[in-house]
Structure formats: C-alpha cells, structure tokens
Design a protein that fits this description.
alpha+beta, about 500 residues, 9 strands, globular, about 5% strand, 19 helices, 3-stranded antiparallel sheet
Amino acid sequence: MVSLTLQIFILLLIILIIWLRFQLSYWQRRKAPTVPTTGLYKLTNREHIAYSYQRAYQRMRRENKGYAGIYTLIVPTLLIADLDMLKLILVTEFERFPDRGFFVNYKSDPLSKNMARLHGELWRKIRTKITPTFTAARMRQMFDNVEMIGRHFIRVMEKEIGRHNQELDVRDLCARFTTDVIGNVAFGLDCNSLEDPHTEFRTMGDKTFSDVNPLWDMLASHFPKLFTWLDYKVSTPELISFYSRIVRNTVAYRELNGVRRNDFLQLLIDLKNQPHQEGEYQLGMDDLIAQSFAFFSAGFETSSSTMAYALFELAKNPQVQEKARQNVVEVLERYQGELSYDSLNEMSYIRQVVQETLRKHPPVPSTKRVCRHPYTFPDKQSLSVEPDVQIIIPIYAIHHDPEYYSQPECFRPEHFSSEERNQRHPMAYLPFGAGPRICIAERFGMMQTMMGLALLLKNFKFLPCTRTAERLNFDPMNVFVFSSKAGIYLRVVKI
C-alpha cells in the first residue's frame, strides 16, 4: 500500500513538472522575444516591482524590442515597451483587452465590486451610469466643500508648526486632509482627521491598502474559479463591515429625513432611486458601497501621496517652488483673492507641478490588461495573443524614459509646457491610464490636489530639514500603488 501511494505521488509529481515546463515555454513556443525573469520580482523588502519592470523595459529598449514575454508566477504575461502597441491595447482595440484582471467576489465582498476591479458587461453598465457624476458642472458643485476643508487644513498646519518646531511629516498631514475631503465628498461625513489623526476613518484608510495581501490577490486574479469556490475576500471583514455600515446608515438617514448634499454619495443615491427602463441596469446598495469605497480609497491615497511628493520635490527645488508660489499669487490677484473653481483652473504652473509629480512618482506605477479575444498585432512579427494572456504596462518605466522626457530623474514642470507636451506620444504619460478605462475621477483628483498645493504654497515655505531623506523610498509590499515607506519630513515656515 505504501509502495502504491509512493508510485502515485511520483507519477503526479512527474505530471506536474511536465505541465510546468510546458506552461513556462509558452513564449518560446511562439518564438516571441523574452527578457530574463529570474528575480524579476521577489516578495522581499528590497525594492518595488516597478523598478524590476523598469530594468526589463530598459533592456527591451536597448535591444529594440517593442514587447517581451515574461511570466507572472506561471501565467504568460506580455511586457509592453512600444507606445503604438499600448495605444492599440488601451484605446483602439480596447474591446479585445477590456479588463484589468482583478479578482472580484460577487457573493460576499461588496468592496471588491468596484469599477477598478469589475470586468465584462457589468463594468460597462456601471461605468456608463456613473460617468456623468464627474462632469465639470459636478466639480463646481463639490468645490465649496473641498475649499472649506482646505481652509481648515491651513489652520491645522499653522498649529502643527508651533507644536513641532517647524519640522512636520507632510505625508501624514496631506493624508489627513484628503481623508477629510474624500470622506466629506464620498460619504457626506465630517471625518475630522485633521484635528484627530487617530479617527476611525483615517485608520481604516491606511488599512485599505496595508491589509490587502498582494500575493493572495495575485493568485486569486490568476485562478478566479478556485478562489470563488474558496469564497476568498479581497478585503478584511473589518473593512467590509466598516464601509458597508457607513454607507447603509448614511443612505438610510438621508432617505428617511429627506436630506440632500452636493457630494458623490448623493449622486449615487439619485441614480439608485431614479426610474429605469426595462433591461437597464439598476444600482443597488452593494453598488453604492463598492463605488463609494473605491472613490474614497483611491482618492485619499493617490491625492495625498501626490501632494506630499510634490512638496518634497519643491523643497528640493526652491526656484521651482517660488515660481509655483508666484503663479498662485498672480492668479488670485486677478480674482480679488478668491480661490474658486475658475481661478484654480487658471493656475497653469501649479497644474504642471502636479503633472510632473505624477510623471516622476506615478501613484500607480504599473497597470495591466487581460486579453479576452484572440488578437494579432499588425507589423509586430505576427505576434498573436490568446485569451487570458496578461499584459503589463510599465508606467513608471515609460515616465522615466529619456526619449520622452529630457533629464527624466530631474523635477522639471516644464516637461508639461504646451511646447514639450505637444511633441510627445500621447501614451508617454499615463498616471490616470488611457482609453475607456481611464480613471473616472481624474478631474476631481486634479482639483483637490491643485487646491491643496495652492493653499499650502500661498501660506507656507517648504525647506529640507535634518530628517528629510535624500530620495523617496516606496514600500515594496504595496505593489498596487507607490506608497512612501516612511514619513516625509520637511521644515515648514509660515509666510
């Protein structure tokens, strides 16, 4: 009996080895160019995966390869360096590459049913429903709420300067500001994290990313049927309970008492309650929970990081900081000192500062697409991609390519002057993505980030201090976003 068991085990092991060898020869069998993937990404605390992709990208560029086959775990993956191919994938042939390939638990994890993760027809229906909520007119309606919190932000900064002898962790303060903004706009709640950094909303905001296991999430995205059977949840029960409770209680209160606000949640409530035609998708409570969660988690982290990284770069580049400050002062003088939606949009150099920060430190340093229909790329040595093949878009590597950006390691907002911008390939700048799956809240993200920077530069100067790092260090375990591994300390002086 023991001998038979051993024989069966050996047979299964041999079959597994043969299958793995076959699986890992996918690109060789298709005679596609490859790059070495040994050590491409190790789950260690040494570096972010974006730098691994960058090395592979740079090798591809040196060898004049527009693409290369690699493996994510054991899944065939295509790494793209050719921008024309990127345009085909993200825009022109979007219908063949429509999904990001994330795992979604439709049964018991409502937070995973957000637009960033959804795929197929359900993503399309919800995207169509929600897109009108992010028009310029809607931004105007939300502007006053954001501006009110921005004024509070300045008062808190003034108090913190005295309390900490001018040396502040701007990363933490910016996160508290965007937590209050997004909490107000997404949920209609006064989070008050500017005054109390230990509020529940602020704590849950940090856990939104830190409590997601990147390895398990990657495995779930590659083997969705197995993980659906296992009822795997992307978010922890604590996060699911917290955000579900907040949305359900707020919606119930507003509907019972006839309360209305100019915020994102109100727009979702109106979409849920509006009459719909037969066959049209009707938003339910789980949709409100999922989309509110996505708006909060993505909006607070990416915008706060961008603000903090911008302040870090401005402290290191005082001439750029002064030019940005003068841009704020000059525009406000034309508007009699009033910070409004129109005056903010006229701060062209502040916009360039934000854009350059997003180029140098993109919050999402890489993204992916999944092929859903067979496709052969034109003029690419007849490269054919089959369904379920994943495609990696190395955003960070593209943003640091000297062919597209002169002195890519330098902080130069002039990269986004109209002259330089018009000379670049449209796919050379992808902080919000491109095509039908471009970030739906791009306009809001730019608005809150520009407003925060404009108010800060008008009231304070930012300088390096003894605790200021030489360069930004990003958490390698947070593969989804560029998240600073430690605080970003600067000397802040009231003007």
